[in-house]
Amino acid sequence: MTGKKSLSIGERCYRIFRKIHFLAKRGSLFSFRRTTIIRGKNYPKRTFTIIFFNSTLLFILANLLVFVITRLSTGIAALSFNINTISYYYDINYLITGDKWTADAVQAVFSTGPIIALFTGIVLFFLYVSVQAETGILRLLVLWMIAQSIVFFLGEMLMGALFNQGFGYVIMYLFVMDTGKMLISVFAMVAMVTLGFFFTRLFLFSGNIYFNCINAHNRRKFVLNQFIYPFIAGNLLIFIIKIPELSLYEMCTNATMIFILLPVSIRGMNTQEIYFDEDPRSLKFSGTLIAITFLSLVLYRVIFGIGVRL
Question: Which of 79-99 are b and which e, b meaning 16 or more Cβ less than 10 Å from the residue's Cβ?
Fold first, then answer.
């Protein structure tokens, strides 16, 4: 027998209770004013275009910010071993001959960036949790920075073990054999997938920037235009900026974010309705955000094209 599955009496009562609780919390249970929650076909055509555009810009800004944080922390760690560095947008040069590297220096220098990314992500996570009910668009920048921090830690661990670069040097100097490297890669991948499922609700709560609720009418397009499409477009723009100095290792590392976003998409597209509030939302392209992103990309390409010396 086919057809839509009927809800049990308990499930119907639970949904009614949730809606009553939502209206009572907003003080509109006995109000007869028109709700501002937008349903299905009533969305303006450009709604999801604006979501995609803003999210892509914030994705790029998040990537640049975490990149700068990790590169500078790596350079400072190298200075503690009297190793000068020049950071470029495509690589980092260590002004030291290969025979002068010590095991302690390798482990400290090449692990500092990923570890700082981890701590940055943890701090930003608690910050995001504290402001997740806000509707400001900068919340999305914090969310993207959390995802980028995970990539700069677990993604670096995953690809470092496979490519024997970056964090892979730390693994090599720990004398980990090929089986151990494979286990580290599997651990990093599983950890990213697990975090993706764990963070799904936090990702979906960014929908209150644009909507009064996430429901069956908007959640699929929202997830795609808020996360999946900006991830693809943002990485493409970053790679274009780095032409002709493209690094396969860096491209693969950035691509590991898909292990976070796929669980978010799978779980997010099948989640229950999430109600936020009844306050009206304004959908518009942010000229300030466009200007800041453009200026940041120019400064990034110019400054790190010349090289930042520490």
Answer: eebebebbbbbeebebebeee
